[in-house]
Amino acid sequence: MAAAEEEEAAAGGEEEEELAHEEAMELWQAGLARLVRDPLLCDLPAQVTPEEIASQVALEYGQAMTVRVRRADALQEPMPVVVVQQATVLDLKKAVQRFVQLRQERQSGVQHLSWRHVWRTYILAFGSEKLDNDRKTLREYGIRNRDEVSFVKRLRK
């Protein structure tokens, strides 16, 4: 009989944890909603990630910069990608991947995009200069805050 009481108590404890989790999630969502209403963070979407909040705060403190990335077809407006001031070309590529992934998840659910194919077919370019060295910093190419880079079709060798 004592074992049955212990099982009931254990089951009741699980329900309390679930309720506590639901309450925590409600508090978390309410906190995020307050954060997004802040004038400094109002550019962020409703389903904001902690990474996006950190990027926006780094932008405000001058620790990061926005690089606008234009697609090769130029049909859409440039993507505002946030990277740290000392970012390399590889960091920019990863930020572009993350930006596109988040946008796809928010618009139409999860879709798979072969980034290996994208980077084999296209290269990023700043003006007429191709960003072909992944280890080189964006500053070495002369890229500053709010500059625009674009996808350019790679030439076959």
UniProtKB/TrEMBL annotation:
The entry's keywords: Ribonucleoprotein
InterPro entries attached to this UniProt entry: SNRNP25, SNRNP25_ubiquitin, Ubiquitin-like_dom, Ubiquitin-like_domsf
Residues of the Ubiquitin-like domain: 65-157
GO CC, any one term: ribonucleoprotein complex
UniProt signal peptide: none
Stretch list, region Disordered: 1-20
Name used for this protein in its record: U11/U12 small nuclear ribonucleoprotein 25 kDa protein
Organism, scientific name: Gekko japonicus (Schlegel's Japanese gecko)
Gene coding for it: SNRNP25
